[in-house]
């Protein structure tokens, strides 16, 4: 289940929590002056509708495929490792190229980038919906991630310049955030409906409807805008960070067959080397993709690591929840969608409450309590059995996970922007979203390792096929619980300072 966080406009990511954060303030300062006069444009609310629709497409595409994967795996004959890459390809490419996509949109033209991103996303969706084999589907998902990395920051930047300040701006961001928060739930329910009553392919083909509406209406209601100055694109930074994470994730996938294999070691070493090259490039280029000064602040670094842990949970482990509900408990796809959406509903319920409590509790307490609460939920889920019931073994865990995620989301964006210069606000905010996507990519590979090991142990013990599946999924949930506990420890160690220092906008 993919969530996004409220991000700063110029380079960025996509919002979930509709609150007035430092990102929003930085966005106001960064909006070009010449756009203010267009604030009263009567087309602005149509523009908001198009941009919100775009956000819905990007968010729901992270979850809609989860429900469809069991049928897709059966029809295309894909292995479990290949199945994971259907989700990983989207998250990996999206997260790695998000910062570059934001800079391209700012300097090439936000409307132009939006339109290209939309058309490309639609073409990739068509390719995936008509895929005749596993490789086609994985490539299509990667292409979706590529165009989403261009589309998402362009849409948010367009929202910023269309509503540069005032009450209308707050309303626009609230609508945008509400769509982001509900997009994961829409994806689960729509994916279940389409898979059950049509085909898994329509979970990709349905994007063509959204794309057609957005392109047709957007061509009339969106206005072009660009950032001042000349663009310098850190292409080599984008290549090394994408290749580095890609090799690491692929190396972890190969590790299922042995850690000491030459190809496993080669991929892991190559990935680490490329990531090292990325750090070197970022410290030497004039316009880095990720200014390293953003990572030197301990509080911000802690927020990024916690977000990566959430990505591992929401993108990685929830895929296995969909499999447990359908393959072990025997739920139909639509029922599985309703059963999964409980977690998102719990998140949406607790976010408004804890947003009000943030100035009282402070961000550190929430960033420790939230992951620990979610970890308790995953620990509960780790005890699932082949003959267990949803109400006893699954539902309580999902409620705990959803509540914990909501508590964690509330302070994350504020901490990601503590002490950030206005010029770095977009990059810092986009890094939070990128951390989630990349954390999800690595998490999927790590969880696959846990699932394989548990399945081998259960098979050796003579367990039935359903018991083997339940055992492997339980191992995934237990591993996710450990990741969340580590996230809480990181927050406890890294997030230091008074509430006034950590929450300047609430002081």
What tags apply to this protein structure?
single chain, about 500 residues, mainly alpha
Count of domain modules: 1
Low-pLDDT segments, ≥5 res: 1-39
Query: What's the oligomerization state?
Result: single chain
What is the CA–CA distance across the termini? 33 Å
Q: Class in CATH?
A: Mainly Alpha
- Residue share in helix: over 70%
Mind telling me the C-alpha Rg? 21 Å
Q: What is the H/E string?
A: HHHHHHHHHHHHHHHHHHH
Strand content: under 5%
CATH architecture: Up-down Bundle
Q: What can be said about the biggest beta sheet?
A: none
The outline comes out as: globular
Give the mean pLDDT: 84
Explained architecture:
With 507 residues, the chain is an all-alpha fold. It has one domain (22-224, 287-506): MFS general substrate transporter like domains (Growth Hormone, Chain: A), CATH 1.20.1250.20. The chain is built from 19 helices and no strands. The chain has helices spanning 22-30, 44-60, 64-76, 80-108, 110-129, 134-162, 166-197, 202-205, 207-221, 235-254, 262-282, 298-328, 333-361, 363-381, 390-393, 395-416, 425-460, 465-494, 499-502. The longest helix is centred in the last third of the chain and has 36 residues, at 425-460. The model is unreliable at 1-39 (pLDDT under 50).
């Amino acid at each position: 289940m993919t969530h996004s966080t409220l991000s700063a406009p110029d380079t960025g990511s996509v919002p979930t929590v509709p609150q007035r954060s430092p990102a929003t303030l930085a966005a106001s300062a960064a909006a070009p002056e010449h756009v203010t006069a267009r604030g009263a444009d009567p087309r602005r609310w149509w523009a908001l509708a198009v941009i919100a629709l775009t956000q819905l497409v990007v968010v729901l595409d992270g979850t809609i495929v989860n429900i469809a994967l069991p049928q897709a795996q059966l029809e295309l004959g894909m292995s479990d490792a290949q199945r994971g890459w259907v989700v990983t390809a989207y998250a990996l490419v999206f997260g790695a190229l998000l910062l570059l996509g934001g800079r391209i949109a700012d300097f090439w033209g936000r409307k132009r980038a939006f339109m290209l991103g939309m058309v490309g996303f639609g073409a990739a969706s068509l390719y995936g919906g008509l895929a005749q084999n596993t490789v086609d589907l994985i490539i299509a998902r990667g292409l979706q991630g590529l165009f989403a990395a261009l589309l998402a920051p362009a849409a948010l930047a367009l929202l910023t310049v269309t509503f540069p300040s005032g009450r209308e701006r707050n309303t626009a961001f609230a609508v945008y955030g509400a769509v982001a928060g509900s997009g994961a739930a829409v994806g689960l329910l729509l994916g279940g409906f389409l898979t059950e009553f049509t085909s898994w392919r329509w979970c990709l083909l349905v994007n063509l409807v959204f794309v057609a509406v957005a392109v047709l209406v957007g061509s009339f209601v969106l206005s072009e805008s660009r950032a001042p100055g000349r663009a310098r694109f850190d292409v080599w930074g984008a290549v090394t960070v994408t290749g580095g994470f890609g090799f690491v994730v692929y190396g972890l996938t190969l590790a299922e067959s042995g850690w000491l294999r030459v190809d496993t070691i080669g991929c892991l070493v190559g990935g680490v080397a490329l990531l090292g090259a990325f750090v070197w490039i970022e410290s030497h280029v004039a316009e880095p993709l990720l200014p390293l000064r953003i990572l030197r602040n301990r509080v911000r670094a802690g927020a990024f690591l916690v977000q990566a842990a959430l990505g591992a949970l929401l993108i990685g482990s929830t895929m296995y929840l969909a499999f447990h509900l359908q393959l072990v408990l025997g739920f139909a796809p639509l029922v599985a969608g309703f059963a999964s959406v409980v977690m998102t509903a719990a998140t949406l319920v607790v976010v408004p409450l804890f947003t009000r409590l943030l100035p009282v509790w402070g961000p550190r307490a929430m960033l420790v309590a939230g992951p620990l609460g979610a970890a308790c939920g995953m620990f509960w889920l780790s005890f699932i059995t082949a003959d267990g019931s949803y109400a006893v073994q699954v539902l309580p865990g999902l409620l705990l996970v959803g509540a914990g995620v909501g508590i964690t989301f509330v302070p994350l964006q504020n901490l990601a922007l503590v002490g950030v210069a206005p010029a770095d606000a977009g990059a810092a905010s986009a890094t939070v979203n990128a951390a989630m996507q990349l954390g999800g990519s690595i998490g999927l590979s790590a969880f696959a390792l846990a699932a394989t090991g548990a399945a081998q142990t259960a098979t050796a013990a003579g367990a039935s096929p359903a018991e083997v599946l339940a055992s492997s999924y339980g191992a995934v949930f237990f591993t996710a619980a450990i990741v969340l506990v580590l996230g809480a420890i990181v927050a406890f160690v890294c997030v230091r300072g008074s509430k006034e220092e950590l929450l300047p906008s609430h002081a």
